[in-house]
Amino acid sequence: MELLDYERRRDNKYSDMFSGFKRSLPQISIFHHPSSPPSIQALALLRNALSSPYPPGKPSALPLEFDLEVVETKPPTADQLRTILTYITPPRSTAPPALSAFLSAHPASPGLGEQPQSVKGIVSLAERNPNVFKWPVVVDWNGGRASVGDVEGVRAILEAIRQQRDGEVKQDEVDQPKGWFS
């Protein structure tokens, strides 16, 4: 009897010790504005992926698992925008990403010469007039992916999460740093 208790405690000790190695869920944020049709579609797509089989045409599939944070009517912070810019920059691109990617075609949007030249300027402009910001911004913080104002980009993020779930992409391949040797 004592031996069984000892083995149980030992197994619990080791499972606790290695619990930090468990894979965490993807962290998805959507910066959402309820008056934006693409934002409404993206939010519905994300919520359906959590509650219904994914992909939708495959009834035997399980829903996706990820943590969804909905940030309503607030743009990302300047620090978040800096990170998002690195996610939307094409690989091997030497050109800095354009801040205009966050501006909508709304009539109140500034013209080319009047556009903010910093992420702080974009955030300030979006806080003053949400119509000039391109909603939604959906970010997969763990996967390093983002979509700005584009429902198809949200589908691509969900597809990448599905591929990872279904073992079509190994975790090691997803988390490889992009650098000199990649």
What does this molecule look like?
A hairpin with a 4-residue loop joins strand 3 (137-140) and strand 4. Residues 175-182 have low confidence and may be disordered. The longest helix has 16 residues, at 2-17. The protein is built from 6 helices and 4 strands. The protein is an alpha+beta fold. A 4-stranded mixed sheet has the order 2-1-3-4. The chain has helices at 2-17, 37-51, 78-88, 119-128, 151-165, 171-174, and strands at 27-32, 67-72, 137-140, 145-148. It starts with a helix and ends in an 8-residue tail after the last helix.
How many beta-strand elements? Answer: 4
Give the biggest sheet.
Answer: 4 strands, mixed
Please tell me how large the radius of gyration is.
21 Å
Order of helices and strands: HEHEHHEEHH
| Portion in beta strands | 5-15%
Task: Work out the helix count.
Answer: 6
> What strand line-up does the widest sheet have?
2-1-3-4
Structural class: alpha+beta
Please specify the SSE layout and strand pairing.
Blueprint: H1 2-17, E1 27-32, H2 37-51, E2 67-72, H3 78-88, H4 119-128, E3 137-140, E4 145-148, H5 151-165, H6 171-174
Parallel strand pairs: 1-2
Antiparallel strand pairs: 1-3, 3-4
Family: Belongs to the FMP46 family.
Function: Putative mitochondrial redox protein which could be involved in the reduction of small toxic molecules.
Protein name: Thioredoxin-like protein
